[in-house]
Structure formats: C-alpha cells, structure tokens
Amino acid sequence: MKRTLFFGFATLALLFALLTSPTAVFAQESADIVDTAVAADDFSILVAAVQAAGLVDTLKSEGPFTVFAPTDAAFNALPDGTIEALLADPTGDLANILLFHVVPGKVMAADLSDGLQANTALGAPVTFKISDSGAMVQNANIIATDIETSNGVIHVIDAVILPPSDEAPEMLPRSEERR
Q: Contact at 8 Å (CB) between 69 and 101?
C-alpha cells in the first residue's frame, strides 16, 4: 500500500513538473529560424548552405527576420553543378543568394499584397505577386506560410530566388528568366 501510494505521488509530481516546465511547454515555440529549419525534413540543402556561408549566428540572433526558405527540391532544380559551385565560394555568390531570401522584420502572409516590395538583407528588394492561384515572391510560389519561430517567420517557397542581374552569379538563370 505504501509503495503504491509512493509511486502514485511520484508519478503526479513528475507529471506536474513536466506540465509546468517552461522548457517543455514552449520547446517548439522557442526554436529559432535555424533550429526550425534543421528540425524540418525538407531543408537540408538550405541548412548546409547557411552553415557554409557562415550565416548561422545571424539567423539565430534576435531578429526578427522573415525567411523565404527554398525546399530541397527547389535547390535540386538548379542546373547541374550549381550547388557544388556555390558551396566552393560560400561567402561570395552563395551568401548573396541566401541574403536575398531574408527580409529584416517579420512579414506575415496577411501583410502581403500584390506588387508589394520588401528590402532583403542583401539590400535588393523582392516583389510579391498575389493572385487567385496563390502568392509568389519573385517567381517562386509560396507553398507554406507563417511558420513562426522565436526570432521571426519562415515562408516555404518552391524555387531558389536570385538577386538582380548585377548581383547574381553568372552561372545561374536570372529570376526573371524562370518559369
């Protein structure tokens, strides 16, 4: 009887500790942009690129940031050899392309409007298109929105968007030439 009562109280105490622990309750909500991308299944190339370009600390900082995150399929749709070439110079063209996917501040899907422009961390603006078929940033479809993190928001896109011609690497097609 004493043993059963002891285990009953111990179980209740453990359950109470887990339910009242801020870490347990907010573990998912407190993940930053990088940790959220790492935990997802479809951003391994993006995460590797961010690591190679030395942008992890930036995207783990306070922010807030809005990240337009290309899926692995979006990266794999680039011409053969492109990812490898970009990874060979991670602080050059790769960093510029990644910074073109980041908007300082928190831009939620409800904030978007057709023709809206937002300046990226690269300094060049991205343009949004809104239609009955959905929302786009540059020429990439926004396929999932408003993934909130502790330091901003992630919107998932189906293509890698490229900076304007004067800042984009020559080996890649310009965003205007896509689709």
A: yes
Beta bridge partners of 104: 65
Global pTM? 0.77
Q: What is the structure's pLDDT at 30?
A: 77
List, in order, residues 6 or more apart from 30 with CB less than 8 Å away: 150
DSSP 74-113: HHHTSPTTHHHHHHHSIIIIIHHHHHTTEEES---GGG--
Whether 65 contacts 104, CB under 8 Å = yes
Q: What is the mean pLDDT of residues 46-74?
A: 96
Alpha-carbon distance of 9 to 159, in angstroms, equals: 54
- Between 177 and 108, residue with greater pLDDT: 108
Rounded distance between C-alpha atoms, residue 113 and residue 136, angstroms? 10
Phi, psi of 69 (to 5 degrees): -95, 110
Sequence length of the chain is 179
Residue 167 CA to residue 76 CA, distance in Å, equals 22
Question: Whose CA is closest to 63, among 6, 99, 115, 102?
Answer: 102
Q: What is the rounded CA–CA span in Å between residue 114 and residue 86?
A: 32
- 168: Cβ contacts below 8 Å, ≥ 6 apart: 93, 96, 97, 162, 174, 175
pLDDT digits (tens, 9 = 90+) for 87-120: 998 999 999 999 999 999 999 999 999 999 999 9
